[in-house]
Design goal:
Blueprint (H helix, E strand, L loop, with lengths): L5 H10 L11 E6 L2 E13 L21 E11 L5 E4 L7 H8 L11 H9 L8 E3 L18 E5 H7 L7 H13 L3 E4 L7 E4 L3 E8 L8 E7 L10 E5 L8 H4 L29 H4 L8 H15 L3 E3 L8 E7 L2 E6 L4
Parallel strand pairs: 4-5, 5-6, 6-7, 11-12
Antiparallel strand pairs: 1-2, 2-3, 3-4, 8-9, 9-10, 10-11, 12-13, 13-14
Bound molecules: zinc ion (ZN).
Zinc ion binds next to loops.
Protein name: N-acyl homoserine lactonase AttM
Organism: Seminavis robusta
Keywords: Hydrolase, Metal-binding, Zinc
Length: about 350
């Protein structure tokens, strides 16, 4: 474990919100070489920025200093020039009450924005208009609307499906209930491939999107790379975005990728303070014996992903970062900084 230089620590603290912004929008937009990116927000909560990092886990905690951080629960909609609509993750949905209980910091007078309403009111789309749902992983705040898209193919990494439906996984029943019916209907697509590859999601219908295995938060967690290019930009490099899922939850993890939240599965084994006496049983046998999987797997995945985002001059899109939930990353010799995008 390394200690952060003081100036970086101060910069993290300065990024925290002293209070929630006066307003937050249900939708922020970006465009990328002919592709429309719409970052939808279902809910926002003030949280203690030390949540969910345990004080024993990092030398620089606590961060809060009387401030609060804002945590979004979001979904990203990617609209391709061909008319194909791809959701990246399926949000919180009815699980919102659980999130509220967990956070302990509901934002009063700002009710959650339901996905179907946002689609209808802001974009004139219905749930039937979603063609693909690509899941970064199977945690409850990313699968809430699964089952609501009658025409969508759902895409997951095979390692994630294996983990989520393994007998020891704490959310096994939820994953089985949500995904087994889709499997029976032939609407579940499982991806294979390792972390150095861009794994095609559908080469015919959405060739602009590829999955990048980014394990640590969960064993089969993926980021999604989006590459846009128009005919007029032929001589230019493509415009790129990465949807990071839960590879990071807060922008201060860009500044300090070693901050490991309690719910990164890779860290469970080394955290005796977790209220799980049988952590060992939640691991797939294959993972227990896999030396590549250890407590800091998510930190390594974060660094690798951040390096790539910075090197490709890509837009970072997050379901949990404060509004607008997207921005850019700079890499100064392995020291990363995050600049939130201006809200349109
Ligand atoms: Zn999440």
């Amino acid at each position: 474990m390394t200690s952060l230089p003081n100036e970086v620590y101060e910069r993290i603290k300065s990024k925290l919100h002293p209070s929630p912004p006066d307003s937050w929008q249900p939708l922020t937009r970006a465009s990328l070489g002919g592709i429309q990116i719409l970052n939808l927000t279902e809910a926002c909560y003030e949280v203690d920025p030390d949540f969910p990092f345990h004080p024993d886990s990092h030398p620089n905690l606590p961060l809060k200093d009387g401030r609060l951080s804002l945590m979004r629960f979001g979904i990203c909609l990617v609209r391709l020039p061909t008319g194909t609509n791809v959701l990246l993750d399926a949000g919180v949905g009815p699980w919102i009450e659980e999130v509220e209980k967990c956070s302990g910091h509901p934002v009063p007078e700002k009710p959650p924005h339901a996905l179907d309403k946002i689609l209808q009111e802001e974009l004139g789309l219905s749930l039937e208009d979603i063609h693909f749902v690509v899941h970064s992983h199977c945690h409850g705040d990313h699968v809430g609307w699964v089952g609501s898209f009658p025409n969508a193919v759902h895409v997951l990494h095979s390692k994630e499906y294996e983990f989520a439906t393994y007998s020891g996984c704490p959310w096994k029943q939820d994953a089985v209930d949500r995904f087994e019916p889709l499997k029976e209907q032939g609407r579940l697509r499982l991806l294979d491939g390792d972390d150095d590859n861009n794994i095609p999601i559908d080469e015919e219908k959405c060739p602009q999107l590829t999955a990048v295995l980014c394990a640590g938060h969960t064993p089969g967690h993926i980021a999604v790379r989006i590459e846009g290019k128009t005919a007029e930009d032929e001589d230019m490099p493509p415009q790129v975005a990465f949807y990071i899922g839960d590879a990071m939850h807060f922008a201060h993890q860009v500044l300090d990728p070693d901050l490991v939240p309690l719910f990164d599965c890779c860290a469970w084994k080394s955290r005796p303070f977790l209220p799980m006496s049988n952590v060992e049983t939640t691991w797939m046998p294959a993972l227990r014996n896999n030396s590549k999987w250890h407590a800091t797997t998510s930190c390594e995945a974060r660094r690798k992903l951040l390096k790539r985002i910075a090197a490709e001059d890509a837009l970072l899109i997050s379901p949990h970062f404060s509004p607008p939930g997207m921005g850019t990353v700079e890499d100064a010799g392995g020291q990363f900084t995050y600049m939130a995008a201006a809200i349109e």
